[in-house]
Design a protein that fits this description.
alpha+beta; Alpha-Beta Plaits; 3-stranded antiparallel β-sheet
Length: 172
Amino acid sequence: MDDETTRHDQYDELVEQVAERRAHELTAHQRSCAACRARLADLADLWHGVDAVGAEDVETPAGLPDRVISRPHGRNHVDVVIDEIGGRTTVSSTVLSLIATSAIVHVPGLVRVHSVDVRADAFALAVTLNLQRPLHDVADAIRAAAAAELWRLTGIVPPPLDIHVRAVDTAN
Ligand SMILES: [Zn+2]
């Protein structure tokens, strides 16, 4: 059942709620579901960190950027390591996934983000797309939006972004 009061919130829905600063506006489901409230609170905590990064001026570094994605410590644990004069900044895969998801939630033709897998050699997204638009056009738009936002907020040039179209929606 897709009933709004019994269905658990999807990852992208929670990200959008947090990114649009509506984390305090609980839905009927969230008021009655401790699990979804907890996920929402976790994402809101993470988002404070993302906001702090975004508030800084982002300048194109002189010379080659020395921002690299470190070796994975495990399948789902990759940090971006930003070596700067004065210290090292690391950004977790969870935050990278948040940034990428929030950047693409409004791409026309994207219906749902099922998962974001951040790896050192590629980011992998599983999505549902709307069949009213060519799938490859939507995929290109997703890649462009995610890459631009990752660059703006972290200074990294993202690795290839693999998109797995898991399902399609034929509704207008
Ligand atoms: Zn729930």
